[in-house]
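User: Please run a holo structure prediction.
Assistant: Happy to. Please share the sequence and the ligand.
User: Here you go; the ligand is heme C.
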Amino acid sequence: MIKRPSKRSVLITLLIVFVAIQMKTTDKTPIKITPESDFLTLEEAPPDVTKLIQSVCYDCHSNLTQYPWYSHVAPVSWWLEGHINKGKSKVNFSIWDTYTPAQKDALKNESAELIEKKWMPILTYKITHADARLTETQRRMLIDWLKE
Ligand code: HEC
């Protein structure tokens, strides 16, 4: 008969696995930013829009990601890194000067649309970032500015 592992040995195994996966860290080296390349600077966003977009979009769509403590803990760190990489591959507001006028237009329209539909910022982000749960007024302000 096969012996069932004890609760204790299961817990110890899980603990070892948890410690072991911490070895695979994610790269959080700060990326040098140039303010002249920034979306909000180049598009001359007013201060209230700047502040809001920086706090609700820039963690995933810029080189100015602010990493919370749990972003250093695997496997959460891997999952967050996936979001950030995917988000930045779609639009990175820190390198706005590298997009063509047509791309800029498309990205601004898409941003307005995604905010309208409440798809951006993404749901899981809103759970951990209370300030990212936009009010109707905030949503309107961003959409109106993006569509200007
Ligand atoms: C927690 C991370 C996160 C935050 C915060 C976030 N995004 Fe995103 N964004 C993503 C990810 C991930 C994708 C890629 C979605 C996909 O294709 O599955 C994306 C995609 C996009 C796209 C491109 C859509 C496409 O398919 O071309 C735009 C535009 C965008 N986001 C704008 C915004 C704006 C504007 C904000 C702030 C209001 C914001 N995002 C906040 C993660 C985020």
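Residues 56-57, 59-61, 83, 86-87, 90-91, 107, 110-111, 114-115, 120-122, 125 surround heme C (CB under 6 Å).
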